[in-house]
């Protein structure tokens, strides 16, 4: 069953959570079905879901007998310990021949190459593909289709698809995240349950209070977005050149999915048959009456703003309208002496031989010139100028870079790039890095695959930021082959995963050891709540100035910073602090310790730098930790507190 419009293929892609659901959905008006197997996929939280090896083989036989395709999700990050399991699973999949794998971890691409497999590969939405260079890079690695970033509008998708020639897949219905794909670390840091490893506890659907300027605003569920609904916009989807229309719903029940898929399939067929006389609304009422949440077209036609946020019961922490609370607000754990000792002991087991260790250096990321000068005065090893500058500070100018270049001395000065880069951003940075005069910098802090491809021949050495989510040595090796000289370890690594990875990785490793890194990175502008709503109470922020927006639960306050691109960064309520275990981290393979300094005053940052420098020179880590009071709600060990 293949659909065409003006000679171009159109595919309706349906989800299935179990084999029983698959057998019904594959008979509906879809062209392809996707599902997960027993391991390595993004839906690992619900017992009884996903298919066994035997069911996968049978499902493929059924689908191919009907002339339909099957895509299998191998779309989470896997640890060093899971590498052999990944090899075995990929070998099995190569034998049963699905029509494609949907992949997040770059290590899967590396394994497919190493094992000589011929499995077609689709880039998962968790790769967060958002620019042409990313598509080119993935195409070079053998990817034949890209699931676009959820935040991509249809006009951008049309441009990227036309220019790249790569098939694009676009979500058209179902549950959406409010955070950029693979850029949410909240669940891993407070539960040890990684959203990038299929175990998200959905903190985006918690109840929060929004505070700003000393006021409380009526935004009970400010991160709980509506469900995607593109049923009435199928003509625009087809016109944009999207190949595959993807429905979300691997956790949804059989009857609901069959109804939904049949409605979309029937509408596509009606449009192909009679585009001029097409009625967009035939099943709109049916779909609305059976909705799980209210509907939105999300970013398809531009930034949706507050209208993308759900106000009904189903948009809250209640899971799929069953009334069950999926998870509840939980505070970041405190840095405890007992846990620090456990970490030290475990890391000591993975210590490299003394002759193989590298003397550590200190890196600091800053948000403004005052912070930068404080770091240079302290003679840190690396100074990173942020590419996502928090308001009210403004981006570093070329004059700023030239001034810091003249002052840097032995410090290595790196220019950070934005985490999300549009075609406009590439034009701007091309002018600065390729076509302009040589900058007095020592390298680039790169944040996405597209930037690596674009600037790997610019003459500036590249360090890979934590946003690349490198979780195993296979992915590290692939990125090294693309030109990275040093990488930051994934911020989601639990103790066991980190210890094994760090001790085996051949690349120089960097780790964020102090500060308030972003737990959520989103296009959605939370500040709009305080700009358009009337306050309902008065309450000051406890740890940051009232000019900073705060998301508050009964467990703590999470500051939210907006950058120069209008994107929001929700950060820790507590500060990450690995000061007591620097020696063990270095012995395990970390050669660069990074301080996330963007939210500190220059004076606070100076004190933190001094403490870490003294620790690296042999001073008592325990005394230094005790003498360095937290600026915010306390200290935490982040994901390393979990095994």
Automatic annotation (TrEMBL):
Superkingdom of the organism of origin: Bacteria
Listed GO biological process terms: proteolysis
Signal peptide (residue range): none
GO MF annotation terms: peptidase activity
Entry keywords, A to Z: Hydrolase, Protease
Family matches, as Pfam families: Peptidase_U32
The protein's name in its UniProt record: Putative protease
Organism for this UniProt entry: Paenibacillus sophorae
Species classification: Bacteria, Bacillati, Bacillota, Bacilli, Bacillales
């Amino acid at each position: 069953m293949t659909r065409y419009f003006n000679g171009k293929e159109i595919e309706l892609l349906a989800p299935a959570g179990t084999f029983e659901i698959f057998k019904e959905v594959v008979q509906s008006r879809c062209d392809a079905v996707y599902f997960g197997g027993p391991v390595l996929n993004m839906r690992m939280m619900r017992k009884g879901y996903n298919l066994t090896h035997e069911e996968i083989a049978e499902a493929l036989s059924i689908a191919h007998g009907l002339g339909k395709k099957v895509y299998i999700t191998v779309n989470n990050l896997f640890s060093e310990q899971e590498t052999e399991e990944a090899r075995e699973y990929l070998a099995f999949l190569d034998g049963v021949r699905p029509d494609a794998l949907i992949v997040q971890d770059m290590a899967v691409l590396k394994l497919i190459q190493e094992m000589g497999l011929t499995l077609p590969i689709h880039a998962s939405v968790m790769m967060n593909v958002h620019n042409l260079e990313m598509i080119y890079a993935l195409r070079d690695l053998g990817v034949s289709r890209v699931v676009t970033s959820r935040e991509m509008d249809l006009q951008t998708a049309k441009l990227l698809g036309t220019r790249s020639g790569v098939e694009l897949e676009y979500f058209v219905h179902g549950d959406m995240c409010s955070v950029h794909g693979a850029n949410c670390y909240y669940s891993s840091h407070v539960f040890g349950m990684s959203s990038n490893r299929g175990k998200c506890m959905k903190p985006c659907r918690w109840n929060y209070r929004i505070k700003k300027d000393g006021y409380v605003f009526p935004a009970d569920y400010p991160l709980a977005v509506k469900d995607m609904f593109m049923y009435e916009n199928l003509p625009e989807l087809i016109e944009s050149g999207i190949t595959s229309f993807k429905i979300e719903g691997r956790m949804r029940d059989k009857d609901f999915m069959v109804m939904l898929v049949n409605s979309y399939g029937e509408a596509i067929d009606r449009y192909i048959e009679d585009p001029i006389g097409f009625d967009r609304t035939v099943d709109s009422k049916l779909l609305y009456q059976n909705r799980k949440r209210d509907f939105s077209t999300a970013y398809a036609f531009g930034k949706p703003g507050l209208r993308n946020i759900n106000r009904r019961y189903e948009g809250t922490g209640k899971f799929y309208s069953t009334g069950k609370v999926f998870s509840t607000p939980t505070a970041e754990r405190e840095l405890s002496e007992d846990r620090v000792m456990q970490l030290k002991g475990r890391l000591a087991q993975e210590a490299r031989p003394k002759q193989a260790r590298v003397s550590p250096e200190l890196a600091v990321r800053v948000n403004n010139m005052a912070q930068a000068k404080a770091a240079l005065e302290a003679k840190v090893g690396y100074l990173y100028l942020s590419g996502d500058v928090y308001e009210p500070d403004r981006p570093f100018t070329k004059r700023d870079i030239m001034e810091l270049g003249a002052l840097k001395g032995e410090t290595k000065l790196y220019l950070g790039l934005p985490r999300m880069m549009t075609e406009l951003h590439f034009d701007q940075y091309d002018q600065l890095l390729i076509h302009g005069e040589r900058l007095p910098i020592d390298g680039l802090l790169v944040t996405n695959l597209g930037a690596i491809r674009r600037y790997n021949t610019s003459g500036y050495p590249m360090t890979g930021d934590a946003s690349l989510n490198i979780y195993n040595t296979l992915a590290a090796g692939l990125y090294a082959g693309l030109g990275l000289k040093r990488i930051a370890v994934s911020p989601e690594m639990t103790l066991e995963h980190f210890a094994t990875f760090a001790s085996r990785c051949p690349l120089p490793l960097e780790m964020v050891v102090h500060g308030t890194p972003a737990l959520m990175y989103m296009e959605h502008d939370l500040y709009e709540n305080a700009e358009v709503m009337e306050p309902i109470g008065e309450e000051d922020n406890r740890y940051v100035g009232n000019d900073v927006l705060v998301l508050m639960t009964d467990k703590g306050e999470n500051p939210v910073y907006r950058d120069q691109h209008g994107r929001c960064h929700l950060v820790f309520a507590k500060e990450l602090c690995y000061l007591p275990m620097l020696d063990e981290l270095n012995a395990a393979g970390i050669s660069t310790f990074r301080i996330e300094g963007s939210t500190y005053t220059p004076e606070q940052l100076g004190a933190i730098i001094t403490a870490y420098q003294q620790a690296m020179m042999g001073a008592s880590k325990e005394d230094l930790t005790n003498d360095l009071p937290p600026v915010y709600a306390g200290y935490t060990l982040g994901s390393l507190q979990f095994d």
